[in-house]
Write a sequence for this structure.
């Protein structure tokens, strides 16, 4: 890559990092080209993208984007890395990578930033095992709504009893 191309690539990467809701670094060592294509396809389905990036260029872009310096430490930026970025659901790409890694044993999560918060590998794995945001919201709404359904059921039962009593009273009076 020529110097001008590197500068352009760093600027673009820094802009992507700034607007990302979630970014995760993975070690893709041993992943075949076919495997990379499959993972990229799965990530694309959840609105995320994976790019292989040179460690030095990522470090410069991350510094320009002013993100947590823990993500650019020398212990993290060793070996080949791929960057997974999303502007949508921050957990969905983690779930895809986690399931893919369970299936093929490659890639492995390194570190990431989820909604601006630094996460190590263990925290990323815990987040990946959570249900999706939509499922959690549905569960919360269901829990909030269940007492209302109980109240409505009790009121309907009492209303039916009242109608039954009035109906029987009307029959007695008309007879």
């Amino acid at each position: 890559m020529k110097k001008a191309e590197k500068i352009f690539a760093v600027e673009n990467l820094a802009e992507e990092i700034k607007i990302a809701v979630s970014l995760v670094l993975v070690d893709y060592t041993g992943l075949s080209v076919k495997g990379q294509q499959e993972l990229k396809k799965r990530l694309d389905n959840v609105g995320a993208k994976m790019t292989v990036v040179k460690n030095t260029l990522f470090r410069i872009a991350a510094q320009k984007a002013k993100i947590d310096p823990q993500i650019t430490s020398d212990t993290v930026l060793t070996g080949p890395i791929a960057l997974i970025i999303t502007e949508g659901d921050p957990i969905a790409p983690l779930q895809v990578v986690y399931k893919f890694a369970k299936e093929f044993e490659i890639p492995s999560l390194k570190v990431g930033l989820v909604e601006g918060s630094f996460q190590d590998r263990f925290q990323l794995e815990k987040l990946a095992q959570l249900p999706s945001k939509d499922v959690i919201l549905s569960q919360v709404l269901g829990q909030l709504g269940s007492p209302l359904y109980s109240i409505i059921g009790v009121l309907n039962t009492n209303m039916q009893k009242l109608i039954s009593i009035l109906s029987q009273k009307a029959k007695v009076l008309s007879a």
The first helix runs from residue 3 to 19. Residues 131-175 form one domain. Residues 130 and 136 are 9 Å apart (CA to CA). The chain has a mean pLDDT of 87.
